[in-house]
Specification:
The structure holds two protein chains of two kinds. Chain A has a single domain, classed as MetI-like fold, CATH 1.10.3720.10. Helix content of chain A is 73%, strand content 0%. Chain A has eight helices and no strands. In chain A, α1 crosses α4 (81-105) and α3 (66-77) crosses α4. Chain A is elongated, with a radius of gyration of 20 Å. The N and C termini of chain A lie far apart (44 Å). Chain B is mainly alpha-helical. Chain B has a single domain, classed as Orthogonal Bundle (MetI-like fold), CATH 1.10.3720.10. Chain B has ten helices and no strands. Chain B has helices spanning 3-12, 23-55, 59-71, 74-85, 90-113, 117-125, 130-163, 173-182, 185-213, 216-221. In chain B, α2 runs antiparallel to α7 (130-163), α6 packs across α7 and α8 packs antiparallel against α9 (185-213). The longest helix of chain B is centred in the middle third of the chain and has 34 residues, at 130-163. Chain B is elongated, with a radius of gyration of 21 Å. The N and C termini of chain B lie far apart (46 Å). Chain A binds chain B through residues 59-60, 62-69, 71-72, 74-75, 143-144, 147-148, 150-152, 154-155, 157-159, 166, 169, 172-173, 176, 178, 181-182, 184-185, 188-193, 196, 216-217, and chain B through 2-3, 6, 63, 67-68, 70-77, 79-80, 82-84, 155, 158-160, 162-163, 166, 173, 176-177, 179-180, 185, 188-189, 191-193, 195-196, 199-200, 202-203. Chain B: Belongs to the binding-protein-dependent transport system permease family.
Chain lengths: 217, 222
């Protein structure tokens, strides 16, 4: 009964169940961050003066320690998954917004002029030219945001066992089973590295025109 | 009662201002741990980053270290170290340093490597030895980025040192952890306010540092 992947029943999940929970708690915030940062970044590209204050705000939000963020949100959302996910989504902005802004700005003016000459309107130009060219930069940002998010979810354990795989850390202590903590740390690290690899694959699939070698970062 | 009322209740209680669990003591503890961890991490990360960046080698290895460093959950590492080696400063210091080295290392490497090669060539052409090329040309130009790496590391340390209260470290995180267990929400919010304040102060310190140390010419072009 005490195999490496057998979990105490108070976790209320199987090992794979916790993995699923962990991925959900980590990835939804990054997705939400991406959805918010695309229009924000576009505004920053259009109106240059917005960019420095936006950067300032996201940097300040990022500086606030996750635990402090969680406990303040408890007052509004209780000890729930939402409380864990909101700060994670906000943290992802500090990486995603600059990544998208840099990516969209790096589109050469000749390319934009060509798109305009072909009769593309602002909307189609954005979706068919600027966004695809910015994909490598966006994915680079997503990689950092995703991996950090996966690693940070475990802190949610401190606010009423909302830390998915992080909850194993509590049991590791109470039941004196260090193997649980080893399992938790390793699983989270492996999940992060796998997510990173998946995103690299997505970039290769989305940008078939990029050279295979030398494009890695 | 909202968050502000909780914070006001916490800070207006005189008992929180002295003794071993007083704000000054906890604040000093937190600051000491954070500065020590940052200094150790910088002592490891800066030289390696400067050297690899200067010679432009080892980028792939560093990228791997960066991903691994981000993927390792610092909180998990903290608890694991605590279970393995018990109470003390060391089990807390190791995860903090492990967490802080990758951002310093990788940003320093990137910063030095992305320095415009023409002034570097010019410096070599003028007969500067490699050490002077590194410290008088590359480092000043790369300084803003190097500082941003140190800033990221410092902020992550401050934030993780908060979590370290869970494994019996002192510091400001104590208020949050103890408060949660005691269902004393004043304490939780007070602690969170202090920690957030310290993190913001860290930002300000690094901003001031870059104002003071980055050459005006570099700042304008950056």
């Amino acid at each position: 009964m005490n195999g490496f992947f057998d979990l105490p029943s108070d976790l209320q999940h199987s090992y794979l169940g916790l993995v699923g929970l962990h991925l959900r708690e980590a990835l939804i915030p990054v997705l939400a961050g991406l959805i918010v940062s695309l229009p924000v970044a576009q505004l920053c590209v259009r109106f240059r003066w917005i960019y420095p204050p936006v950067l300032g705000i996201t940097t300040v939000l990022y500086a606030i320690p996750s635990l402090a963020f969680f406990v303040v949100l408890i007052d509004y959302f209780g000890q729930s998954e939402t409380t864990v996910m909101i700060p994670l989504a906000l943290y992802s902005l500090v990486v995603l917004v600059p990544a998208i802004v840099d990516g969209v700005r790096s589109v050469p003016p000749e390319t934009l002029a060509a798109a305009e000459a072909m009769g593309l309107g602002a909307v189609r130009r954005y979706f068919q030219v600027q966004l695809p060219i910015a994909v490598p930069a966006i994915i680079a940002g997503l990689r950092v945001a995703t991996v950090s998010s996966i690693s940070l979810v475990s802190v949610g354990m401190l606010i009423g066992n909302q830390g998915a795989l992080g909850n194993m850390l509590y049991d590791a202590q109470t039941y004196h089973r260090p193997a649980l903590a080893v399992n938790s740390v390793l699983t989270i690290a492996v999940l992060g590295i796998l997510a990173d690899a998946v995103l690299v694959l997505v970039r290769i699939l989305l940008t078939p025109w990029m050279p295979r070698k030398g494009a890695t970062r | 009662m909202n968050v502000l009322d909780f914070a006001r209740a916490f800070f207006s209680d005189g008992a929180h201002w002295h003794g071993y669990d007083g704000i000054p003591t906890r604040f000093t503890e937190h600051l000491t741990f954070s500065v020590e961890a940052l200094l150790i991490a910088a002592a490891i990360g800066l030289p390696v980053g400067l050297l690899t960046g200067h010679y432009g080698r080892g980028g792939n290895v560093l990228a791997l270290i960066a991903t691994a460093g981000r993927a390792l959950p610092s909180f998990g590492l903290l608890v694991l170290m605590f279970i393995w080696s018990g109470f003390g400063t060391l089990p807390v210091m190791i995860p903090l340093v492990v967490l802080a080295v990758p951002p310093i290392l990788v940003t320093t490497y990137e910063a030095i490597r992305s320095v415009d090669p023409s002034p570097v060539d010019a410096a070599r052409g003028m007969g500067m030895p490699e050490t002077r090329v590194l410290f008088q040309v590359e480092v000043p130009v790369a300084l803003p980025l190097v500082l941003s790496g140190l800033r990221t590391a410092a902020i992550q340390i401050v934030s993780t040192a908060t979590i370290a209260a869970y494994v019996s470290l002192g510091g400001l995180g104590r208020y949050i952890i103890d408060g949660l267990y005691q269902k004393n929400y004043d304490k939780v919010v007070g602690g969170a306010t202090l920690v957030a304040g310290l993190a913001l102060a860290t930002l300000v310190v690094f901003w001031a540092l870059s104002r003071l140390t980055v050459s005006p010419g570099v700042r304008r072009s950056g």
